[in-house]
Amino acid sequence: MAFAKISQVAHYVPTQVVTNDDLAKIMDTSDEWISSRTGIRERHISVHENTSDLAVQVARQLLDKAKLSSEELDFILVATMSPDSTMPSTAAKVQGAIGAKKAFAFDLTAACSGFVFALATAEKFIRSGTCQRGLVIGAEVLSKQLDWSDRSTAVLFGDGAGGVLLEKADAQYFLAESLNTDGSKGGLVSGQTVLQSPFSEHQEPLNPYIQMDGRAIFDFTIRTVSKSIVAIMEEAGEPDYLLLHQANERILDKMAQKIGVDRDKFLANMQRYGNTSAASIPILLSENVANGTLKLDGSQKILLSGFGGGLTWGNLIVKI
Ligand code: ACO
User: Which of 11, 20, 50, 112 is catalytic?
Assistant: First the structure.
C-alpha cells in the first residue's frame, strides 16, 4: 500500500497591509471593536494580483524548496472560493504558468474547509498508487467579493495563499480523517451567486458579496466542530499542535475549553492575516515551519481543522 506525506510547505501574501485603523477611516468601526471581537489587527489585501497569481507564487516556492521540476508533478489541486474565473480553473492557470505538463489540475470548493478537503482528496490519489506527487494549494482573493460598506464582513477577511507538496512515502503520515457537510444550513454563510438562466421563471436577486450570520457560525463551530475534533482525537490521539481555520481568536479560546486541550497547543496568526478562508490553514502551517515550531521531520502530530460555508467542516490528523 502507498502512503502520502507533506514534504514541503510555502505561503505567499500580497504586500499591501490594511490595519484596523485604516478600515476605521472608511467605515464605522474601530480597532478596539475588531481586535476585541476577533483578534484580527491587520490583513493583506491584493491590489494587482488575482487568486491564481498568489497560487503560482506558492507553487514556484514549493518546487524550489524541493528542487523539483514542474514536469515531475502529477496533479495540482487548488482550494478556493474566489477563483479568477469559473473557467479555466485557478489550478489550470497555475499548471499552465509553471509548465507542469504532466499534471492534471482542478479547483475544489469547500469554502473555509477547502484546504482540508483538497488535502484529503489528494492523499487518495497517492494512496491509490496512481500518482507520485502533487501540489495542494489554498488561495483566496476575498477582497474582490467583499461589500466594503458592510462592516460586519469587510473587517474579517484577507487575501493570501499557502500550500504543500504532497509526495509518496513509505510509512503512514495521514492518521485520521473526517469530512462533513450540512447543506441544510448553507444560508448561514454565502458568497457570490452565479448568473441565472434567463429562461427561469423564478429569478432570485443576485448576491455579489460574502454574507454571514456570524453569531450562528460561531455557535456551529463551538457546538458541532468541537464534537468532530473530540471524535478524531479519540481515533488518532491528542496532537502536538492544532491548526484550526483562522476566523476568530475567541473560537480558539472557547474550543480549547470545550475539547479540554491546552490553549497553547492552538497555533494562531489571524492577528496579521484575518480570515483567508481556504488559505488560512496552509499559511499557518507554512509560517510555523518557517519559525521552527513545526519540524517536517516526521516527529510531530498535528490536527488540521477547517470549517465554514456549505456548511462544511473537516479534520485531518497527520504526522509531519
Ligand atoms: N465594527 C463595529 N461594530 C460592528 C462591526 C464592526 N466591524 N460589525 C458589527 N458591529 C456591531 C453590530 O452592528 C452589532 O451592533 P448592535 O448590537 O447595535 O446591533 C454589534 O456590533 C454586535 O454584532 P455581532 O454580529 O452580534 O457581533 P459578534 O460578537 O457575534 O461578532 C463576529 C461578530 C466577529 C463575526 C463573530 O460572530 C464571529 O467571528 N463569528 C464566527 C465567524 C466564523 O467563524 N467564520 C468562519 C467560517 S465562515 C467563513 O470563514 C467564510
Answer: 112
The tens digit of pLDDT for each residue in 71-106 reads 999 999 999 999 999 999 999 999 999 999 999 999
pLDDT digits (tens, 9 = 90+) for 9-60: 999 999 999 999 999 999 999 999 999 999 999 999 999 999 999 999 999 9
Catalytic residue status for 48: no
CA-nearest of 120, 40, 57, 113 to 81 is 113
Residue 281: CB within 6 Å of ligand 1? no
Sign of the four-CA dihedral 265, 271, 276, 279: negative
- Kindly report the pTM of this predicted structure: 0.96
Buried b / exposed e along 111-143 (16+ C-beta atoms within 10 A): bbbbbbbbbbbbbebbbeeebbbbbbbbbbbbb
H or E element that contains 162:
strand 160-169
User: Would the CB of 37 count as within 6 Å of ligand 1?
Assistant: yes
Cell 477611516 -> residue: 25
Residue 112 a catalytic site member: yes
218 lines ligand 1 (CB under 6 A): yes
Nearest CA residue ID for atom 30, ligand 1 = 215
Strand order across the 133-140 sheet = 3-12, 160-169, 133-140, 75-79, 104-108
Q: Whose alpha carbon is nearest atom 26 of ligand 1? A: 215
How far, rounded to the nearest angstrom, does the alpha carbon of residue 117 sit from its chain's CA centroid? 9
In the reported structure, the alpha carbon of residue 3 is separated from the centroid of ligand 1 by a whole-number distance in angstroms of 42
- Give the distance, in angstroms, between the CA of residue 155 and the centroid of all CA atoms in the same chain: 18
CA 213, CA 205: separation in Å to the nearest integer? 19
